[in-house]
Amino acid sequence: MSKNQEAPLALAVGYHLRAQPLWDGRVGVEGFDLKATYFKNDGERHDQFLRGKFDAAEFSLALYLLLKSRGEPLEAIPVFPNRKFRHAYIFVREDSPLSDPRELKGKKVGIPSWLNTCGLWVRGILHDEYGVKNEDIHWKAMRSEVPLNPPSGTQIEVLSGNAKLPARLLSGELDAIIVPDFPEESGIRRLFPDSKRVEQESYRRTQIFPTSHAVVIRRSYLDKNPGVAPALFRAWCEARNLALEDDEDATFSNFAWVRQAWEEQRAVMGANPWRFGIKGNEKTLEAQIRYAGEQGLLARKIGIEDLYIKMDEN
Predict the structure, then answer these.
(1) How confident is the model over 86-111, as pLDDT tens digits?
(2) Phi-psi region for residue 129, left (φ > 0), alpha (ψ -120 to 50) or beta?
(3) Which of 135, 170, 201 is the last residue of a domain?
(4) Owning domain of residue 273
C-alpha cells in the first residue's frame, strides 16, 4: 500500500523513552500514516483523547477501567508503557512520627482523586501487604472528577480551596499524601526511606510490576481499520526494544552509575520487565482489576479478556 493510501492514525503518547521512537519517526505503524504527538501532561493527553482529537492514546489505567466497565466504546491493546512500583509514593513530613504504613489507620491522607492510578495501586498495596483497609483512612481528595461509588464505610472528602497537597501536608492539615511524583517542596520525605528495597522484596514475593497506562483505541476507528490493533502493538514493541537498547548503553545516559542500575534491575526482574502482551503479565493485570473492584471503580465485573485485545506476548 502506498503512503497516500494508508489510513491516517493520530496517536497521543507520553513523554518517555518507550514512546519516543514513535514520535521521532524511527518507528511507524505498518499500513497506517502515523502522526504521534507526545504530551508531558498526562491529564491534557487524556482530555484531548476523550474530546475526540486522537484515534488512539496512551491512557490512564484507572480511568480506562472505569469507562470500560460502563460500556464505553474503547478497546485496549496489552501495551504497558508506564509502569512504576508504588511503595515510594507515600509521603509524610520530615518530622512526622509515622514510620510504618499500618500507622496510617485513622490518619488524614491526601490524594489527587480517588480515580488516580497511583492511588489505586497504593491503596491495594496497603490492604494486601499491611492490612490497612480503605475505610481505615480519612481520605482527602483534591477533586472528585467523576461520580463514584466508594466501598461501604469509605469516606472521601473533596478538599476546598486552592492549596496543593504538599502544602496541606506541611501545614499539618494532612498526615500523609499519595501522589504520583516526588514533591518539590522541602520538608517532605517518603514513608519508606528504603523504598527500593521494599519494592524489590514486594516484586520477588508477588511478581507484580504495577501498570499505570494502557494504550486505548476508539472502537469506531477499530471497526473501520481492524488491522490497527496488531500493527500498533508491533510498533510499540519495536519502540520499546529501541528504548531498552538505549538503556543498555551506558554512554547514552546522563547518570554516572546507570550501568549498575541496569544490572541491578536485570538481576531482580529479568531481561524484559517491560513485557507487553497478556502472557507473563497475568498477576499484575489480575491485581489491578481486583483493586479497582474493591475500591468501587467498576460499574460491573470485568476480566482481563474484557479489557485487552489478545496479542502474542512480546
Answers:
(1) 999 999 999 999 999 999 999 999 99
(2) alpha
(3) 201
(4) 3-83+209-278+302-307
Question: Is pLDDT of 76 > 70?
Answer: yes
What cell does 281 get? 503479565
Cβ burial, residue 26 (10 Å; 0-12/13-18/19+): exposed
| pLDDT band at residue 1 using 50, 70 and 90 as cut-offs | very low
- Give dist(CA 174, CA 178) in Å, integer: 11
All three cell numbers of 41, joined, read 501532561
CA angle at 285 for the pair 139 and 62, rounded to the nearest 5°: 40
Inter-axis angle of helices 228-248 and 258-269, nearest 10: 130
Rounded-to-integer distance, Cα 77 and Cα 174, Å: 38
Binned at pLDDT 50, 70 and 90, residue 144 comes out as confident
Report how far residue 119's alpha carbon sits from residue 115's, in angstroms, rounded to the nearest whole number. 8
- What sign for the dihedral angle of Cα 224, 216, 208, 295? negative
Are 108 and 78 part of one and the same domain?
no
Between the CA atoms of 292, 297, 301 and 304, what dihedral angle is there, to the nearest 10 degrees?
-50
Count of Cβ atoms closer than 10 Å to residue 132 Cβ? 21
CATH number of the domain encompassing residue 271: 3.40.190.10
Average pLDDT, the chain: 94
Q: Sign of the CA dihedral 124, 126, 132, 135?
A: negative
